[in-house]
């Protein structure tokens, strides 16, 4: 089995590793030390032209390839991912700064996603339609768009590569993937494994580069037929404006400010560790992170105390120490999170634990302490804006009505988690909350296969995750026949 190796200062276009046309390079930095560990090519607009042209050339052949054969190649890809879990996990962990165990979990998730869409490739069907009389036939075809541009952020690059590339390819599209300039290694490595799996040249192309430069060149490219974007709400708006210019459909998965709503009748021994994990996993740098804790007043004192104890016990260190939490991804993210930690008390919040840089960062690296604030003003920045760090904002409520109002008091609509022993209350709130996803007595979607990764309002609109993604990456054609 050949070792997984990403050649320095290169990108993957038309099945070949090449340098950027102008030999531009991007450093890839270990967030635990601030040191450069590798380079990749920095793609310019000429490289974007090359990648889109390669994807265009590959499209007719790939779309005409039988769905079963596309599924077979995806299955081979997933097997190769399974054979390289440790190497991929190291790349993901080192690049983002997450503990090795977290990198491993992400790679297993990515592998599962590719396997899922391997099985979905030949299940995509249209429908036959009822007709007024028997001498007519009406039916629909699900057709790929053509060249899909996929732009992803740095926080879970392996998972987001799989979640967007696999359904796009399964449905017969070709792809130009632009990972984040901050963490491109796992996406490149996954693409190399796709190459080894036997995908024809040009079906999957990957180039890295700065968003406002390479990303903008890709989203405004006339050769792109569909844009799938995962990232911040601000960039999502820019992507939509670019898509409007060429009238290209766009799928957006954006930021969040997800509430954990904790009622006094919940099993606190289960809920509290999960709530702490929801904001410290990946150092809080997850779109669905449980960044707001809404707690019923009668148990608020006890809950805040127990959450603080667990936050103090979080073991912090670099990726290879494989503890509970790593650093933030880079200096920009570090400064941003410290800004929230500094402004929160001025906005009336009470600091319970944490609140600043962590000692582990003294030798370099972007470590911050898991931080807990209570009495957070619902109008404050800490309550309303996505921090994207291990910072938890606590607010108290009394009764179901107020809990619902507070859950919905956000511009985002990604995930809401309801913790209660009363099943009727949980189901009622699940119906009334304005959120693309709801989980009850657990954080997020563990245990459900193909859970749709839905979003509402400022969190975007997407039917990613699960079988719905096959429709997201296809357009429907309606056919009417007089027999
Ligand atoms: P970002 O918006 O800064 O960048 C995301 C990607 O867009 C990167 O590849 C970047 O290079 C590119 N980009 C930036 N400007 C661009 C432009 N003008 N045109 C084209 N591309 C451009 O986000 P980030 O800081 O990398 O990631 C963090 C954000 O991602 C958070 O808001 C988080 O909530 C969100 N996120 C959402 C999901 C989800 O599924 N909803 C999942 C993970 C992360």
TrEMBL record:
InterPro entries xref list = Ald_DH/histidinol_DH (IPR016161), Ald_DH_C (IPR016163), Ald_DH_CS_GLU (IPR029510), Ald_DH_N (IPR016162), Aldehyde_DH_dom (IPR015590)
Q: Which domain of life is it from?
A: Bacteria
- For this entry, the protein name equals Aldehyde dehydrogenase family protein
Keyword Oxidoreductase listed? The answer is yes
Question: One Pfam family from the UniProt entry?
Answer: Aldedh
Q: Which UniProt keywords apply?
A: Oxidoreductase
Q: Does the keyword Zinc apply?
A: no
Q: Where is the active site?
A: 253
């Amino acid at each position: 089995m050949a070792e997984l190796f990403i050649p320095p200062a290169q990108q993957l276009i038309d099945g070949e590793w090449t340098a950027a046309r102008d030999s531009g390079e991007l450093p890839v930095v270990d967030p635990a030390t601030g040191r450069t560990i590798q380079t990749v090519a920095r793609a310019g607009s000429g490289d974007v032209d090359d990648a889109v042209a390669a994807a265009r050339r590959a499209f007719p052949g790939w779309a005409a390839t039988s769905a079963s054969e596309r599924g077979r190649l995806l299955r081979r890809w997933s097997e190769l991912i399974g054979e390289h879990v440790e190497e991929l996990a190291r790349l993901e962990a080192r690049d983002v700064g997450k503990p090795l165990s977290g990198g491993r979990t992400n790679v297993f998730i990515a592998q599962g996603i590719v396997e899922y869409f391997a099985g979905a490739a030949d299940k995509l069907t249209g429908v036959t339609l009822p007709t007024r009389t028997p001498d007519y036939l009406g039916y629909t075809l699900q057709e790929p768009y053509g060249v899909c541009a996929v732009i992803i952020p740095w926080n879970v690059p392996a998972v987001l590569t799989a979640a967007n590339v696999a359904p796009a390819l399964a449905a017969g599209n070709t792809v130009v993937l632009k990972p984040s300039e901050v963490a491109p290694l796992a996406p490149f490595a996954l693409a190399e494994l796709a190459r080894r799996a036997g995908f024809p040249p040009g079906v999957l192309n990957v180039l890295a580069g700065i968003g406002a430069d390479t990303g903008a060149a890709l989203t405004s490219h006339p050769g792109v037929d569909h844009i799938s974007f995962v990232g911040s709400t601000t960039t999502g708006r820019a992507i939509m404006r670019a898509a409007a210019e060429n009238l290209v459909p766009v799928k957006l998965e954006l930021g969040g400010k997800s509430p954990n709503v904790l009622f006094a009748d919940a099993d606190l021994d289960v809920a509290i560790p999960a709530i702490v994990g929801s904001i410290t996993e990946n150092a809080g740098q997850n779109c669905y992170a449980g960044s707001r804790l809404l707690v019923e007043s009668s148990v608020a004192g006890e809950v805040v105390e127990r959450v603080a104890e667990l936050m103090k016990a979080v073991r912090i260190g670099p990726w290879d120490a494989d503890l509970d939490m790593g650093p933030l991804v880079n200096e920009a993210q570090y400064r941003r999170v410290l800004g929230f930690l500094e402004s929160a008390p001025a906005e009336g919040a009470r600091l319970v634990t944490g609140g600043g840089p962590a000692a582990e960062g003294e030798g370099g690296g972007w470590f911050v302490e898991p931080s807990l604030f209570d009495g957070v003003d619902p109008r404050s920045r800490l309550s309303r804006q996505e921090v994207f760090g291990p910072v938890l904002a606590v607010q108290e409520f009394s009764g179901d009505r107020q809990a619902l109002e507070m859950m919905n008091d956000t511009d985002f609509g990604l995930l809401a988690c309801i913790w209660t022993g009363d099943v009727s209350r949980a189901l009622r709130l699940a119906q009334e909350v304005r959120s693309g996803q709801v989980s009850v007595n657990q954080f997020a979607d563990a245990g459900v296969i193909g859970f749709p990764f839905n979003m509402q309002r400022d969190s975007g609109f997407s039917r990613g995750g699960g079988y719905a993604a096959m429709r997201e990456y296809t357009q429907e054609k309606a056919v009417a026949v007089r027999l």
